Amino acid sequence: MNNISTLKRISVVTILSLATTSCTPAIEPRDADLGKESSASEVQKALNDAFSNISIADAQINQYVTYEDNIRVELNEVMKSRLIKHKLIDIKEDDKTVRFIMFEDFERYDLGTGNIIDEKHSELVIPFQKALQTTMKPKNALSKELYINTADACDGHDVTDDDGLVYDCIKYFNLVSQRRQVTPPAAVKAKPNCGGLKDCLMNIHYLKYDQVKWRNGKSVSTINVNAEIALDVADLMYEFDDNGNIFNTPPVKSLCYKGNRTLDGRIYLISQCTVLRDFQ
Predict the structure, then answer these.
(1) In the chain, where the domains are located
(2) CA of 129: how far to CAs of 94, 102, 231, 251, in Å?
């Protein structure tokens, strides 16, 4: 799914095939004016507030979500990489486990041609222990990939990220966390009575901030996070990684990460988004 680590895993071929220009971001010294600074604990609180009322336990049979993943390199065309639909078809439980049974439609696209290169249509079973029923979900994509350690700020200690890179300073800027109402996706607007949405508006929690990492006094990584957490949408986007672990993209209208990647001495601006296309 879309996350900060993914920005570093985009293939060299993909970047070179999509990039026609390069607007190299400036390397910022540690004392540069990057906007209003927020503490790591303030950002973590905003994440917690945004997801406090989201749970798969609230999902109902026959609800579904459809998401598109896409990528943009510099100012080039947005390229669709994946379309995925999850529909909840049954809920089964025994003494210890609750199992959410979904039907998954999945298509993956070639970024260069736009052609479908992989697709599947299968049943997906997401199990939860009843002991977890009060929360009913693992850490979602935002809180897992952007987990905020309150020691991350410039306190004189080095910080090592998930990729083993060491930074001497990590800060957060331009935090926005607020409730809003926005228009739903076109497919929802076209439904009778706008799919049941009052005034044809979705309730979201808008979350935005910048994460900046420094090494030797110079910025080496800047990630901009923009998320519209969808409060009217079922929490159904659960998947398994290669090791069988469950991970989750939260219900969002959009979730975008924008950051830079260095290749052959040039810095390319990469944007990756997950966008809600339909829901019920």
Answers:
(1) 4-55+69-80+139-279
(2) 10, 17, 24, 21
